Structure formats: C-alpha cells, structure tokens
UniProtKB/TrEMBL annotation:
Its EC number is 2.3.1.47. Homodimer. It catalyses: 6-carboxyhexanoyl-[ACP] + L-alanine + H(+) = (8S)-8-amino-7-oxononanoate + holo-[ACP] + CO2. It holds the Pfam family Aminotran_1_2. This is 8-amino-7-oxononanoate synthase. CDD domains: KBL_like (cd06454). The gene is bioF. NCBIfam families: bioF. Its cofactor is pyridoxal 5'-phosphate. It comes from the Bacteria. PANTHER family: 8-AMINO-7-OXONONANOATE SYNTHASE (PTHR13693:SF100), CLASS II AMINOTRANSFERASE/8-AMINO-7-OXONONANOATE SYNTHASE (PTHR13693). It is an enzyme of class 2 (transferase). Keywords: Biotin biosynthesis, Pyridoxal phosphate, Transferase. Substrate binds at R21, H133, T350. It comes from Rosenbergiella nectarea.
Length: 382
C-alpha cells in the first residue's frame, strides 16, 4: 500500500470510529474563559491547575526576562544556551524538591525520553505501571533494556515483576498522579518495595508538583518518599512549560554527558525560566491557590454526588467521567459545549478501548458558580 493510500485509509478508519483528532485554535483567557471564534466557554480541560498561566507576576517575569535575556536561548545549554537564570532555576528546584541536582529540559516528554535513553542499557530492566505516560512507554519500548509492565497501581503486580527479574539494574517507573484518571500511585509502598529489591524508583510527577504536598512539593513530599529520580514539568500547575529531572550529582553529570535531548536541543528560553521561578515562588508562598483548588475539587464531587453523577475515586484536580463509547463521549462533550462548557472527550488510544471519557480538570481559577453550572450541564447532558 502506498503512503498516500495508507494515510487516507487511516484517516477514514479514525473518522468512522469516532477517533479523529483535531486541534482547534482557541483563545484562553483568565478565569478559565475560552473563545472559539465568536463563541465563549468556561473551560474545564486545562492542566493550569492553579491558574498561574495568567498570573500578572508570572507574565511580568516573562516579559522582563525577555528584555533582559532575549527571546530565545540561541543554542543548547552545552554551547551558549545556559544562563545564570537557568542555573538559578535548577538550584531553586533542587532546594525546593530536596535533591542534590536538577537538570532542565524543554518539555516533560523530552525529560522522560532523555532519562530513559541515557540510562537504560541492554542488561537493565525497566518495570513500569501500565498506565504511564506515552513519553515513557515509547522510550521504554525503544530502549535496549528489558521492559516489563505491571497492572495499574498493583503492588502485587509490581512485586511479581521485581521477583521475576534478576538483572542488576532495575528501574521502577510510575507517576505521582495519573494524567487521564487522576488517581495517585501508592508511592510509600512502591518506594519500600524498591528499597527491598534494590531497584531504583523514578516518579513522573507532572500532575502533582505545585498542587500536592507541603509548599506544593508534589506527590513524593505528600507521601514522604524520595525517589531516585523525579521528573517535574512546568506546563501544568506552574503555568509555563518545560521540565526538570531531579536526581543525584552523579546522575546529573551522567545526563550532561549522554542525554541527547539535553545536548542536541536548544535550551528553554531564559525568560521562560524567569517565569517558572516566579511561579515556584507563588506556589511556595501562597498556599491559598492550593486551598482554593482543593475546595473546588470538593465542591465538584459533592455536587456530582447530589446529582447522581458517577465519578471515580480520584481526589485530585483530574476528575474523569467515564462514558465508554467514543461517539457518546463526543456527543456528551458537544452537549456541554452547547451549554457553554468546554470539556475534552478523551478516547483511545490515549485511554484504554471502551473507556472513553470526559476528562474534567478543576483549577483554582474556577469560581463556585462556574462549577455549579458545569455540574448542572453535565446532569442534563448525560
Ligand atoms: N508526563 C505526564 C504524566 C504528562 O501527563 C505529560 C503531559 N501530558 C508529560 C509527562 C509531558 O509533559 P510536557 O507537556 O511538558 O511535554
């Protein structure tokens, strides 16, 4: 089959199965407002959990940063792209999250891949939760290491995999908060199991950092564990973009030698690093954002319960409503849109077949009235 035929056939199949993906050019503004052309919505689909992407101080830091450092880093950090501002951000992250070192990458996707590709050799084993992020799944599949998966959040499954593998170097990979389900990994038990089996633990806390734990230190701080490697991203609760790998001195130096996404890619702009530094300041010093988010999550769950809307056990900002069928998930999302609420329908392969869902995300930026309105609209749409 030619490329042209294959492409056309794939698009046709995806269309028929209700799986065609589209990017729409939307304008997001403060207070969870979203405009698509002339139409206006309240959105419940962003990972901007604290509303910091429109915080005046974060915007100001970015603008002043651009004036000071220019708009682009101009090169990889190994050439001229690493500034005192990048260095300060790494030091701040390391101190905040309690690790010897932090290494900045331009996205969470790149950070996960950089780490796995740099670390894993053919004599090693990667053992990962089945629902871990696509960036990790792909890196683990393509890496020369042996790759084993355990059922989502199953301690028995993890124990079986640890018992069944004998390679010297084993890296257990999980997430703090799972991106499509919002549930949390039992990190304390996983960490203990890794210690017993002398395996390293890597936690991707893209959805936990900034939101959970004392001073927003994330899932690991909340569950009082220290993994060997922690990946945090700046595009979610911190409201910017970019990521960092938190690790030991030796791992950081090793990544500086061998992480290709670090060495062969333009560093994130220093202005962006300035914005992230300001976000971290806000997260650490102003717990009211986290408290407002917690209140919004609690209000949403209580209102859904009152309306008989079935939710999962998630207690985080990610509150999926499982629909099952792809077409129905799209129809419910469409009906919410007609009522003025923008909620993304998530379908396979992002989530398992038969578990299409509305991925509702709450933010400190939502007002109580917006949440009441969403639940009423949901009640009518389901
Ligand atoms: N890890 C997890 C768990 C994620 O949900 C995401 C974003 N969807 C990433 C990593 C990738 O982060 P980024 O958007 O910064 O590339």
């Amino acid at each position: 089959m030619s490329w042209q035929q294959r492409i056309e056939q794939t698009l046709h199949h995806r269309q028929q199965q209700g799986l065609l993906r589209r990017r729409l050019a939307v304008s997001v503004s403060p207070h969870a407002s979203l405009a698509l052309g002339e139409q206006h919505f309240t959105h419940f689909s962003s990972n901007d959990y604290l509303g910091l992407s429109h915080h005046p101080a974060v915007i100001d830091a970015w603008c002043k940063g651009a004036q000071k450092w220019g708009t682009g880093a101009g090169a990889s950090g190994h050439v001229t792209g690493y500034s005192p501002c990048h260095q300060l951000l790494e030091q701040t992250l390391a101190e905040w999250l309690g690790f010897p070192r932090a290494i900045l990458l331009s996205s969470g996707f790149a950070a996960n891949q950089a780490l796995i590709f740099a670390l894993a050799e053919s004599s090693d084993t990667l053992i990962a939760d089945k629902l871990m992020h696509a960036s990790l799944q792909e890196a683990a599949t393509l890496s020369p290491a042996r790759y084993r998966r355990f059922p989502h959040n199953s301690l028995d499954g993890l124990a079986r995999q640890l018992g069944a593998t004998e390679t010297k170097n084993r890296l257990v990979i999980t997430e703090g908060v799972f991106s499509m389900d919002g549930d949390q990994a039992p990190l304390a038990a996983i960490s203990e199991m890794c210690r017993e089996h002398q395996a390293w633990l890597m936690v991707d806390d893209a959805h936990g950092v900034g939101v959970l734990g004392d001073e927003g230190r994330g899932s690991c701080a909340q569950q009082q564990i220290k993994p060997d490697i922690l990946v945090v991203t700046f595009g979610k609760a911190l409201g910017v973009s970019g990521a960092a790998i938190l690790c030991s001195n030796a791992v950081a130096e090793y990544l500086e030698q061998s992480a290709r996404h670090l060495i062969y890619s333009t560093a994130l702009p220093a202005a962006q690093a300035e914005a992230v530094l300001t976000s971290i300041d806000i997260v650490r010093q102003q717990p009211e954002y986290r408290l407002k988010l917690a209140q919004n999550i609690s209000d949403f769950r209580t209102l859904c319960l009152q309306q008989g809307i079935a939710l999962t056990d998630s207690l985080t900002a990610i509150q999926p409503v499982i629909i099952g069928d792809n077409h129905r998930a799209l129809a419910v999302a469409q009906s919410l849109q007609s009522a003025g609420y923008w909620v993304q329908a998530i379908r396979p392969p992002t989530v398992p077949v038969g578990s299409a869902r509305l991925r509702i995300t709450l933010s400190a930026a939502h007002s109580t009235e917006q949440i009441i309105g969403l639940v009423e609209a949901l009640h009518h749409a389901l």
